[in-house]
Amino acid sequence: MLLAGIIFNLHFSIFNSAQAQKYACVNTDYIMRNMPDYVQAVSKLNKFSTEWQQELENKQQEVDNLRQNYQQEAYLLPDNLKQRRQDEIRTKETELRTLQQQRFGAGGDLDQKRAELLKPVQDRVYGAIERVAREKNYAFVFDRAHSGTVIYAGEKYDISNQVLEMLGVKPGTAHADPDAQATQKSSKNPAASSANGNNEPKKNRSSDTKPKGARW
């Protein structure tokens, strides 16, 4: 009976605690789509992406023309001219791969433009979510647009130190600082592209052309 009473009281306490906490959800995709600044930024990003894609397609066409011409004339060329034409084709192919990586590779021009144009708007949105959560005293805010990701968590609900103590580790050591702020920031990952929805431009669409190059 005593054990049953303890278990009942524990469940009751947990239930009351959960009832006292307030939860909320947002749809960041919906919010972003209704932000004029965000829509304008996506339009600009799409323009850059289209221009760079056309640039790559032009380079690819140049390589294809060189290769086709060489194949048609190779039997007429002396060995020294064959080698020169082959070297020219390889050089152009290398230039194309380099340009693909520069424009659409990880950390390339598109990623930099995305950070420049979209991140300021995303930061404003997440800042507004955090302010509303604090004013309304929400413990957690979940993002419906991204599988219920926690995008805000009240610091007082972080039990990291308690878990460390349970494991026999003293909180505050070099590798044991919970840093609740980092938890909130990591969940706001925009490049995250995560809150960009389906409006952002796709990366290099010429990946099926020759030669193949090498990723909000």
Explained architecture:
The structure is a single chain. With 216 residues, the chain is mainly α. The protein contains eight helices and three strands, in the order αβαααααββαα. The chain is elongated, with a radius of gyration of 27 Å. The model is unreliable at 2-8, 174-199 and 202-216 (pLDDT under 50).
What attributes characterize this protein structure?
216 residues; mainly alpha; 3-stranded mixed sheet; 6% strand; disordered N terminus; disordered C terminus
* Main sheet: strands, sense, barrel: 3 strands, mixed
How many discrete domains? Answer: 1
Structural class: mainly alpha
Instruction: Give the strand content.
Output: 5-15%
Termini separation: 57 Å
Strand count: 3
**Which strand order does the major sheet show?**
1-2-3
Computed CA radius of gyration, to the nearest angstrom? 27 Å
Q: Tally the helices: what do you get?
A: 8
Helicity level: 55-70%
Summarize the helix and strand pattern as letters: HEHHHHHEEHH
**Shape designation:** elongated
- Rounded mean pLDDT is 75
Low-confidence stretches: 2-8, 174-199, 202-216
